[in-house]
Amino acid sequence: MKFLSATLCALAIGVTIGSEATLAQGSNPLDPTVPRSQVLVGPTVGITRNYHTGGFRTIDDPNCPIFEQGSGWGFLVGMTAEFQPSPNWSIIPRICYDTRPGQFTQNLPDAQVLLPNATQPVNQTVETSSDITYSLLTAEVLYKYEIAKITKGLRLSVQAGPVFGYVLGGKNRQVQDLIEPQNARFVNPDQLPEENNGRRLILFDGDIPERESIRFSLKAGAAVEVGLFGNAWIMCPGVFYDYGLTQVTKAENWNLNSILFQVDFRRAF
Question: Which candidate, 67, 76, 80, places its Cα nearest to that of 100?
Fold first, then answer.
């Protein structure tokens, strides 16, 4: 948390410096006739496509399936700044609240069962799923290099850098659903929690066991700068890949990587 506090202080100092730079240099970030301010600040928003690589079972039983691949959509929101020490190079810090959920699904092998008062066996289809909620506070520092100026108000750049994440929460809800036959329910000798009139058993619902509280990753991607409101603001939509360097939990071989569709809005204040 000390790292995050220091980063917040740095952004606050950046806003003050940016205000002074604006008075001296002008506030038009893309107009070549006005010297560009060296510090820009604004909000950032985005959505995330998350890929969880698992390796854990529903319950500790060799006959139970292993959850291998899970995915889900999340979102992020936060603040960003841009420090431009040279015409083509910039430093872009961001602080964001980030959600990275995912869902794993596995089907058990179909089995032939005989229902009470029936003369012919029917197929039994059972599906197991694991719903993951995962949220964190991230602080990143990306280095940006401008590779092309497409038009007067449109620039293309690449960005890359490290990301530090403090995990705010991570939960796992594992259930088993009886898909077929429709007129049956689970036998539940262990008295597990039930839903859907006994057609769903809740195998686990709680915090991810031995969840790591810190996450490190590398983030890289490309973005464009588009002038808004007479180039008084810049909008920077980009696509990034976030590669996790640490695992979600100590107990499992569980990694998390994400594709981020992110938009920054910046101006000199």
Answer: 76
